[in-house]
Amino acid sequence: MTDFFKGIPQIRYEGPESANEFAFRHYNPDEVLLGKRMEDHLRFAVAYWHSFAWPGGDPFGGQTLQRPWFGDTMDLARFKADVAFELFDILGAPFYCFHDADVRPEGATFAESLKNLNGIVDYLEAKQAKHKTQLLWGTANMFSHRRWMSGAATNPDPDVYAYAAASVKANMDATHRLGGQNYVLWGGREGYETLLNTDLGAERAHAGRFLQQVVEYKYKIGFKGAILIEPKPQEPSKHQYDYDVATVYGFLKDFGLEGEVKTNIEQGHAILAGHSFEHELALAASLGIFGSIDMNRNDYQSGWDTDQFPNNHAEKALAFYEVLRAGGFTTGGTNFDAKIRRQSLDPEDLVLAHVGGMDTCARALKAAAKLYEADELEAARRARYAGWETPAAKAMLKGSLAEAAARVTAEGLEPEPKSGRQERLENLWNRYI
Ligand code: XLS
Ligand code: NI
Ligand code: NI
User: Fold this and answer.
1) Domain that holds residue 223
2) Could you give the CA distance from residue 281 to residue 399 in angstroms, rounded to a whole number?
3) Cβ atoms 368, 317 nearer than 8 A
4) How far apart, in whole angstroms, are the C-alpha atoms of residue 314 and residue 430?
5) Which CATH number characterizes residue 68's domain?
6) Catalytic site residues?
7) Could you give the CA distance from residue 350 to residue 54 in angstroms, rounded to a whole number?
């Protein structure tokens, strides 16, 4: 036991009326919704990078958080893992996620970094054996170190491509060993700063071949989890190739990977791409590439990826409704890719940020599940498309354009516009929130 969270109790469900800060008001892991435990619906994960590796910097100032585990030794990395699992226990979190750079010190050479990673994976493996919390996904940080500044798999320098291959291979091995349920690729530097120095076609082709190699390697080692791409339009690059769900789908099709790779969709990234979170979720589900979610929120004014903890259940209910419509998570889950503000210095802040985020999501899920179960919205949606159930309508999709056109005169069609009923459906929605 470390004493970092000394005096902070295990968080338990006390119901909506509780005034105890250190309690869940909505997240009740064993409560059954639509035949499934709430914990199994939400599959919460804590993100190692924001909670244990981030020093609190912003573009105008450096470190504000002084954690006793900050530093570049293996002892401190193990201390960090001890504290991490204490937070997981306090929250009762079923999962966590990490990048290599979050859990191990960077070595002077690749071989040293790999040795450090493998050493920490041994330690994490022992921790997982003793604790409830397991690995939702692992990933390689191919954006912080200066070697990645011009990209990883899309770097103009082929030696960096090799380094990216070595990094992803090492992290897939680590994820596989730890029983991770997914492997994530987010390409923060897979994009460009200026077209003036960029061969866009070559970079895209290299990214496509790289992803094929990742999938081949998954089969080679017998990794049963899902490979997930995390779309984001920009930041840190001016333009990133995995712009949004639609772009990723086109990319996967191009490289024959649409049956192999799914998406990890982040709330804040959807907004940056000019979409709503629920749009990205619904689109991914309709294309068969919905995998997992990174839960957070952006500040409405700053227009940047501020990665705050969610605190608006009405907004998140729209997202969880789409998760339910998609059939729920299989290997995926709800990862808090969210960080406390740089002024939130106390250990309590870190705990309560997660408590609030988990409660916000649970409350959203409860509302979404109630409406989904009542079937009112789905009944209205079905009614709107009911015309397509007729044989004449179905035949049109099999026949030619001329055959569809011929129906107009043959049947004397003069379609009457029908109300889309948006406000009525919005009112219905609000009854459940
Ligand atoms: C950054 C991304 C990152 C990924 C994992 O914006 O959200 O944190 O989730 O590399
Ligand atoms: Ni992000
Ligand atoms: Ni993310």
Assistant:
1) 12-374
2) 32
3) yes
4) 9
5) 3.20.20.150
6) 99, 102
7) 12
Over residues 369-416, the pLDDT tens digits come to: 999 999 999 999 999 999 999 999 999 999 999 999 999 999 999 999
One-letter amino acid at 417 equals P
Q: Which protein residue has the closest C-alpha to ligand 1 atom 7?
A: 337
What are the residues whose beta carbons fall under 8 Å from the beta carbon of 288, sequence distance 6 or more? 258, 259
Residue nearest atom 8 of ligand 1, based on CA coordinates: 337
- Supply the residue whose CA is at minimum distance from atom 5 of ligand 1: 186
CA-nearest of 48, 50, 33, 134 to 93 is: 134
- Other CB atoms within a 10 A radius of the CB of residue 273 amount to 20
Considering only CA atoms, which of 332, 317, 312 is closest in space to residue 365? 317
Instruction: Determine if residue 239 is left, alpha or beta; phi over 0 gives left, psi from -120 to 50 gives alpha, anything else beta.
Output: beta
Answer for the pair 56, 65: CB distance below 8 angstroms, yes or no.
yes
Residues of the chain with pLDDT under 70: none
Same domain, 367 and 412: no
pTM of the model: 0.98
Residue 125: strand, helix, or coil? helix
On whether both 169 and 50 belong to a single domain, the answer is yes
Q: What total number of domains does the chain contain?
A: 2
Residue 81's SS3 state is helix
Residues 350 and 383 in one domain: no
Residue 4 lies in a domain: no
**Residue 336 and residue 294 share a domain:** yes
Is 230's C-beta closer than 6 angstroms to any atom of ligand 1?
A: yes
Q: Residues 277, 229: one domain?
A: yes
273 and 407 belong to one structural domain: no
| Residue 5 located in a structural domain | no
**Phi and psi based region of residue 327 (left: phi greater than 0; alpha: psi -120 to 50; beta: remaining):** left
CA 79 from centroid of its chain's CA atoms: 27
Same-domain pairing of 398 and 287: no
266 Cβ closer than 6 Å to some ligand 1 atom: yes
Region at 151 (left for phi over 0; alpha for psi -120 to 50; beta for the rest):
left
Residues 309 and 419 reside in one and the same domain: no
